[in-house]
Amino acid sequence: MLLLDKTQYRHFLREARHVAQCVPGREICGLIVDTGHQLSFVQTRNASRYVGSFVLSGPDVRRIVSAAKTLKQKTVGTFHSHPAATASPGKSDIQNAVDDSLMFIFDCLANEGCLWKIKGGVAKQLSYGFVQHIK
Fold it and tell me: CA-to-CA distance for 76 and 55, rounded, in angstroms?
């Protein structure tokens, strides 16, 4: 079972909905980092100029991957939002994904998200659990 921080999950779901409402069709995006204890979302700038699409900012990606390596953590995938679609990856999502990686998609309309494993050009939905943020 993959564990996600419930507080962080809710934060990014709210952010995805907020961005989509402020600029209709605009998506949030970022990387998924395995901290060794849970999966963590690290947001990047969306470098796409088009509504309904996302492009991870190259400088942001390099900075996040470098920081994860320094912390002995691993970048394992990406996340993005679907402002007006279900939380399942489209053809371009799958084609542009790194093979054997994770992809988390936030569905802004249904207010939920789904985790996917992308391997060999096929997306398989995974189950995941939450861990409460320990204060």
Answer: 17
Q: pLDDT tens digits for 71-119? A: 999 999 999 999 999 999 999 999 999 999 999 999 999 999 999 999 9
Q: Which long-range contacts (CB under 8 A, 24 or more apart) does 49-57 make?
A: 51/23, 51/24, 51/25, 51/26, 52/25, 52/27, 52/83, 52/84, 53/27, 53/92, 54/27, 54/28, 54/29, 54/80, 54/81, 55/29, 56/29, 56/30, 56/31
Nearest to 83 by CA among 24, 13, 31: 24
The structural domains of the chain, ordered by start, are 2-131 (3.40.140.10)
pTM (2 d.p.): 0.92
